[in-house]
Amino acid sequence: MKTVAELLRVKSMRPVVRVAPDDSVLEAIKVLAREDVGAAVAMEGDRLTGIFSERDYTRKVILQGRSSDSTRVREIMTASVICVPPTASIRDCMSLMVDKGIRHLPVRGGERVMSMVSIRDIVGDLVADHEFTISQLQNYINS
Length: 143
Description:
The protein is α+β, with helices and mostly antiparallel strands. The chain has helices at about 5-10, 25-35, 55-60, 75, 90-100, 120-140, and strands spanning about 20, 40-45, 45-55, 105-110, 110-120. α5 crosses α6 (about 120-140).
């Protein structure tokens, strides 16, 4: 089974999308839109303080009638962040995401946030593995 590190090697690597806990939610949403992602890590310097997602925005700002420009990321972010090491298996990540009802996992090497994997990354990798297995089985049967 492939590890997160192996997935990250083939995934188009780009810097981790970050916001600051003191940013306004409106600023953070603009970052998500500009980077075309669904979540960003909230960082104070090099310290991970939380994760901010579109889900946080819709449930904790829009549905509660809060103002996007006066609400701070720290007020609505998820502070207890579940992270995985680069040695975690893709299957373990999928199980963790399903069990915890989350869609994004920061990848941490020691205290450093290295990357982020999404449910889309995980499912895409699992589908590619299954397609490869099917192809190999078809070749075996046809030969």
